[in-house]
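Reminder to self: keep the SMILES exactly as supplied, no canonicalising. Ligand is flavin-adenine dinucleotide.
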Amino acid sequence: MGTDSRVELSTVDTDWSCHPDDLSGFETDYGGLYSGRVVGVAKPRSPGAVRRLVAQALANGIALTPRGMGHSGSGQSLGWNSVTVDMTSLDAVFVDVATATVTCQAGATWRKVVEHCLTVGMLPKVLPTYLDLTIGGTLSVGGVGSESARHGLLVSNVDSVALVTGNGEQFVCSPNVRPKVFAAALGGLGRCGLLVEATLPMIHVPDTFSLVRVSFDSRSDWLAAILNLDPTESWSHVEAILGPDSATLELTFGGSAAIPQWVSRFQSREVVKYSASDFPSRYYVDFAREQGQFPVFECFVARQHCGSMVEMLSSDLPAGYVIRCVPVHRDGTPPLVRIPDGEVYCVAAIATKSVAEQLRDVLEFITRANRTCFELGGTRYLSGWLGSMTLSDWRAQFGDAWAEWIRAKEALDPNGIFRSALFPGPGLIAGS
Ligand SMILES: Cc1cc2nc3c(=O)[nH]c(=O)nc-3n(C[C@H](O)[C@H](O)[C@H](O)COP(=O)(O)OP(=O)(O)OC[C@H]3O[C@@H](n4cnc5c(N)ncnc54)[C@H](O)[C@@H]3O)c2cc1C
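Structure tokens returned for the bound complex:
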């Protein structure tokens, strides 16, 4: 399937190209470690075009790879003898004040969604810190933001989605309507179908935000602060960053929310005021222009193991990396997005610059981090560099949901048309 480079897909409402000049931009992802084998790029311009595209691919034995902005780190969005389905033309956003929801086509970026929602003084409950990712790409991995301490993952804040499966069927599903399809769509890594649309609940936002950045002298004080945050305090956003020379905790307070005394009395403290419209995009970086190699390690660990995970990462941290730690409220997490039981933290080692010159050391570091994560009963966030995952790691990742993860693929994509450089075969993982 899909190895014929003479393949041609052209349907109403879909831009199509197999010209090498048009393919090159789709043959790598942000991580910069994998090269795809893309036989063509199809860019559907309507939900109907997505259905027709899948039907045509099924009829002609052509493999497809969904792609948003290509920010994956392990070939998740890279074609493998397949046609890349570039979803970025499907980017309409509809705000419904009456139901306090926003319905977004899957190729819309969070930046566009934020702009629309702010026109009515509202926002989705959780946003990624970096907004130039698509709705479809983020819901396909999970979505962590500084609101996750309050509201959980992005995938835990979805009312419904429209998905075109590998059977060529379109389903609108929710926790109550076709819940198994809904579950397979969230955190699905594009392996069961193409997300076309998602409806997300919104909340009112205050006019201003105060971000208080507290700096610690030691890693242990920093860790104690993030692990012992009091949920009854009025912060709305939490994020902690540990760099080679700094250890900061950022707590954000909306409007006139009271800043706890321990924070306002803290010696080493900086307060930054934001308007509602500036706050979501406070970390704007033009990552799209960056080129190089950016292997990222991200995982979820239970509170009691967070210190061990941070210690392992920081004792070995390669130059150019920082550690990011975010508490995650686990209620409502869909079953196939795996996070440990209890109080959970997302811990990441993020490359702040290309690490091409020290790549071998960095990949060994991530392999060690991967081991530590699974030894501590943690799970990986499936967006960064996963090259170190063995079959037994994948089984540990999915735990008692392993059979369901395999079953979802078999039920929703029985012909194995959805593939990627990460999952190059018609099934899931070699040997599974
Ligand atoms: C600089 C940077 C900052 C980041 N910041 C955050 C952050 O703050 N919070 C966070 O949670 N994550 C963050 N991430 C990780 C990011 O959320 C994931 O990499 C996400 O998948 C990227 O979205 P994308 O649109 O680029 O998707 P892509 O990389 O294009 O695709 C990712 C996966 O989703 C699938 N996919 C894409 N679109 C669809 C669709 N419509 N239907 C079905 N499957 C689809 C692809 O096949 C692939 O498996 C960041 C990554 C980078 C590189």
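Points to follow up:
Residues 359-375 form the longest helix (17 residues).
The mean pLDDT is 93.
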